[in-house]
Structure formats: C-alpha cells, structure tokens
Amino acid sequence: MKRVSRLAALALAGTVALAGCASIPMEGSVELARHVEQDREQGVRYFPAGPLTGGSREEIVQGFLDAGTGVQDNFAVARQFLASESADQWRPEQRTIVAGGQASMKTLATNLVEVTLQSYGEVDAAGNYTFYVQPKSVTLQFKLTQIDGEWRIQEAPDAIVLQRQAFVDLFHSLTLEYFDSQFTYTTGDLRWVMTNRDEATRATQLLLEGPNQWLAQGGAVRSAIPAQVRLLEPVRTDGNTAIVNLSDEISHMPPDQLSLVRLQLEQTLKPVLEVGTVEIRVNGAKLDVQLPQPGRVLLETEVKSAPLVAQGQQVGYLYGTELREPQGAANVESVVVDQKVIRGALSLSRQTAALLTKDATLAMRFADTEPQLIDTRPGQIEPSLDNWDYVWTQSTEQPGLWVTKIGETYSEEIALPEGVRDDFISFQPSRDGVRMAFLYKDDDRVVLAISPIQRDEAGTPVGFGEPLLLKMPGAAAADVAWVDRNTVAMLVDVPDGSTDVRIYRVGGELTSLGTIQDAVQVAGSNSLAGMRIIDRNGTLYASRGTGWRSNAATVSFLFAQE
C-alpha cells in the first residue's frame, strides 16, 4: 500500500486564548446532572432589591452581584449600585460567570473591594459557554466612591455573576447553522442567550458575526453570509414567516449563495420562532430568494433510531428482539460473517461500511462482492467512517492516524491535533464531517479531545485545528461515540470497577448518566434516548428515565451509524 504524507498547517485561532490547546479544566468529580436546557423554566424572572440606604462598601458590592439576576430594562436595578457615569458604561453582556457557593469578600483599601468566587463556567459576549467541572477561582475587583454620603461602585468588571439555578432560569441554548468546508452539510454551533431578550434577533446577530473561531479553524466551518452584512432592525414575524431585514451588501450576492444564506437563516430561526419560512429583505424591500435545490445541501444527518448490531450470523437493526437487515447490505452481512468482523461502522445513506477483524480493517460499498483491504497494522482499534467515505484507522502497536477513501488504493497519514496522545483508544468523526472526537488516558486523567477536521477543496482530510481538551477523573478510557450532531458520549472506567456513562454537549456541559458494570461499547442515534451500550457479555442497554435498562437480546457488537 503506497503511503502519502499530507500534513496541513494548524490554524492558530481559538475561542480560548491559551498557549497550546483550548483546554477546559475537567478535574474533580463528574456530577450527575440534567442538561441546562432541560432544567430551564420559561418565564422565570428575578426582582432583586436596589441599594440599601447607608449600606457599607461590602453590602453595596454584594447587592450589585445579586442584582445581576435582574435582567429587566437592561439591568436597571444593578445600574443603581453604580456611579452615574459607570452605570452608562457598564456592559454586563460581555461576561456571565456561573458561580457556586458563597463569594468571599475583602476590602483592600478605602475604596477597593475584592471578591473571590468559584466558577463552574462562563459565557462570553458571543454566547460561547466554557464549562468547568472543577470550580475555577475567579477574582473580581470593584472600586467605590461616595456620592452624597452613599457608597457607589465607580469601576466594575463588565460581567454579571449568576448562581447555577439563576443561570438555568435566565439563559437558553440555541443553535446557529453554518456549513462544512464544502458547503455540503449544515453544522450546528451552540450558543447561549438570555431568555428575556429577543432571541430571534440575537440569534440572527450572532449568525451574521460568523462561526465560533474554534470551529472555523482552517475553514472547517463556514458561513455563506459575508462578514460586512448587518441586521437593520429586529427580526419580526408575519404569520408563519420570519422577516429579516439586512443591509444592501446582501443584494450583490449571486443567487446560489443567496439560497445558502436563506437556508442558514431558516435553519437557525425555525426552532426559535416556530415559523415555517424566512423572508429576506434589503433595506426594507423584499428580496426573492429560493432555497437550494433538493440534495444540494444535506441538513441534519439523521440515522435509523434502532441500534445497528451484529448478532450471531446476522447484521441488522434491532427492534426489541427482532432483527431487520439493512436494505441492500446483504454483501456486507456476508463479509461480517466470513471475515469474523469484531467492530464496524456503516453508512446507510452512502451505502458503505468499514469493518475490523482481528487482523485488518476492511471497507466496502454495498454493491461490492469483495471488501477492500484498508490497513493491516497489528493492534488496531475500532475504525471510523466519515460522510465523505473516508475510513480512519489507528493502531495501538504502530501508532499513526491513517485515512483511506473507499475505492482508492492509497492511504494518508494525518498529524494528530496538538496535545492529543498517539495512543488514543477510541475516536469518531461527527456526522457532519466537521469534528473528530478522541478519547484516551493521560497520566491520572481521562481526556476527551474534540478537534475541527480541516479538508482540501476536494473534501480530503488534511489536518486538524487546535482541540478542546476535557480532562476528567477516571481509571481508564473505554469508548467514545457521537450521540447526535453535537453531543459526545463516553464510557469511562472508574475505580470501583464500574463504567461511568458521560456525555458532553459541545458548547455546553459534561454530565454523568450513571454507571453500567463492565460496559465496553457505546453507539449513538439521533438523541440521548436512542443511545445504546453493551457490556462484556453482549447485554444491550438503553436509557430509561434516570437509569439504564437491559434488553432481552444479546449482541456481538454495535455498529457505528454514520
């Protein structure tokens, strides 16, 4: 097999400004928790008190921090704690600190108060959420002055501090829609906005600003909307239509690009406004814009909701205890049986499969009668198959990440993202082909690394952007899989001998979904409810409420559905 090395330069941009990787501290225990978006209650409002007459410096600062929950009228109550000029200049939307416990406070000088608190995460001005499992110590300083005998804050950080429950009540996640580097697939970019604000207008403004810098490294994620385009007025609705009035730069775009702009706006705003379509206007005048032709852009890449399994001499989707063979995959099933396949990935939409035996990785199209030999290195881990029909392989004995396109006769080695160990034990690309998730052990921590996949003009992978590194406690790493387009599931062995099921929503939080004894493999579907796990005995588990329930069926292994 001819080997060609093509190493792409890694982009330097990242949402977290660090010397190396965009690293999220993930130390301490992983708490069992529900998703923030599931906890949110619509319509919750807080009504904090204004300044106390004769309040001390510390009481004024504490009152100001408490008033961060009063988002009404542009934080009017919080501004009462500020000197008039400071009240006009304060920008609370720049930084939201999600805190836990009581803050400690001390007066450093006559007019200076320092506050130290424990943060579980922060949301920046663009709605990007950085989450910490182990609380991070944050220090804020406030300069005070006396006005008519009352202490007021003269200088305050451009930030608000919210306890977790207040954050749950006051913030809401939404997904901005962009494209992969080829404008073939849509991809989601999770952001967080205040629930009392005009969410549709805020979502549109953020969409126009472009994708998260971390996602956009090396052009991995792109927008069809030129950077100079502005929103001229709040988004409004007319019946089942959202009306978006944009600046005139949009009118100079070719029709095919305009159709992508409309698609971005519709896919972003439909869940927010529950509308059916978007009307684009330019300086108030309606612009006739069609959506892309069917098949031009693939939206969410949903797979079968039933788990795809190997069971004895059969391959199929498991419905209860009934196995249904994937349409057209009879040749794949024959190879699974004849070659004694032990792991695999299958794309029903593209009709391709990647298959691992104890000796090699194979791949084939459904129409092929014989599989293609992809990789013969010893000690291979489960291969991955992306939506461009590239098979990704790795060996624990001869490390190196190889990429081979089905039907072609050569492989390329791709340099790993900075900070990712070459002895990772599990990996999988997201279904939009934009991100790769790696899971491995590093000293006393298990690490989940998520990195943007950079591709050339033909869609060939050429490198990775700087990864997000999520470091968490664990005795060993077991398996990783994408649960849906934006959520990663992990199996992490813990010291008591059980296996913890953890999920990370990219741009959200890491949570634990409980433990399963001796779990070895996880496979995603289209939602958390569709996730399946098997243990060493082949027992299949599905999520049921707050726990896991085993299925009567026993399987050999789970296929990754791409």
Provide the descriptors you would attach to this structure in a database record.
eight-stranded mixed beta sheet, 562 residues, 43% strand, mainly beta, 8 helices, single chain, globular, six-stranded mixed beta sheet, 39 strands
Total strands: the figure is 39
- Which oligomeric state applies? single chain
Which regions are unreliable across 5 or more consecutive residues at pLDDT < 50? 1-42
Cα-based radius of gyration, to the nearest Å? 26 Å
Strand order of the largest sheet: 17-16-15-39-18-19-20-21
Q: Main sheet, how many strands, which sense, barrel?
A: 8 strands, mixed
Average pLDDT: 90
How far is it from the N-terminal to the C-terminal residue, by CA?
A: 26 Å
Q: Would you tell me the structural class of the helices and strands?
A: mainly beta
Helix content range? 10-25%
What percentage of amino acids are in beta strands?
35-45%
Overall morphology: globular
Q: How many distinct helices?
A: 8
Structure description:
- The protein is mainly beta.
- It has 8 helices and 39 strands.
- The strands form 8 sheets. The chain has an 8-stranded mixed sheet with strand order 17-16-15-39-18-19-20-21. Strands 2, 26, 27, 28, 29 and 30 form a 6-stranded mixed sheet that branches.
- α6 (199-209) runs antiparallel to α7 (255-273).
- The longest helix has 19 residues, at 255-273.
- The protein starts with a strand and ends with a strand.
- Residues 1-42 have low confidence and may be disordered.
